Amino acid sequence: MTKHSGGKVGKAGKTLGSKTSSKKQKSKAGKTLKNIRTINIKNVP
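Now predict its structure.
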């Protein structure tokens, strides 16, 4: 699996993977990843 290290996706992944992130931060990161995934699915022909 490709590891994203930049942009919104990379930051969200790092936040979710971190043990020190707060519940609020992880919630926001999860929503970001969900939104990106939804956008990518809609753009597939």
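The mean pLDDT is 83.
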